[in-house]
Amino acid sequence: MNNNLERLQKQLMGDGHAEKQVLLLKLLHEFENAPHFGEKYVADADSVPQRWIARIGALLTRAGIEHKLKFNSIRQTSVQFWSLTRESFRRHLLSAAEEIRLALELDGHEDIGQVYGSQQQYDFLRDLKEIILGAQTEVLVVDPYFDGQAFETYLGPLGSGCSIRILCSRYSSDVAGHVAAFSGQYNVKPALRKSQDLHDRLVIIDRSDCWIVGGSIKDAGKKPTYLVPLQPNIALTKIEIYEALWCDAKPV
Known about the structure:
Elements lengths: L2 H11 L3 H16 L15 H16 L1 H12 L5 H25 L7 E3 L4 H13 L4 E5 L5 H8 L7 E6 L3 H15 L4 E4 L7 E4 L3 E5 L11 E5 L2 H17 L1 E2 L1
Parallel strand pairs: 2-3, 3-4
Antiparallel strand pairs: 1-7, 2-5, 4-8, 5-6, 6-7
């Protein structure tokens, strides 16, 4: 399938169960960490309440058009009923979270993350590609044993749709060959760096969603593994750590 067509098809299909699991985690995180609004309306866009409202607006839009419309309705009355707005938003967050939770349960994906046996190569490939194709701006793969075949399988379908960064080690020369071919076709060069200080296997989407993989991506499905999203606060810490490692890593 043409790479751009595969990515477009993913966008038209909407979120899969893996992305819904991340959205559920984020909705519950914002529900539990809603800031105090106070009694008087705060108009400053950089204030804690307004930044929180902006974040949940993006999440609720992702949850569906009906949640977007309800969010806009609450926001329109926030100036007049500021002291009550916080709880109105929290009720909406919880309602959206429960709707997603029920949908996941009905699909048999109520457990956050997924464990794969040694003969589930296709299931792992399908789920990880779904996560990667859902990226809007950037994908960062961290894996000491990431190789050229893994690049072709998981990152090739992105085409020129978003930026790609790869932090690897042992097979960096092999990956470099695939990066060169990719760049020649799409006129977009993925960034490739090499580091000896890698242990985790991570897939970071849009610098916000962080998935941890139980083993090397190239062997996933051949050996038992897992694919688990990190809680939002843990994900941000993990991303900061690997952004620092990226800065120190050697370009290939």
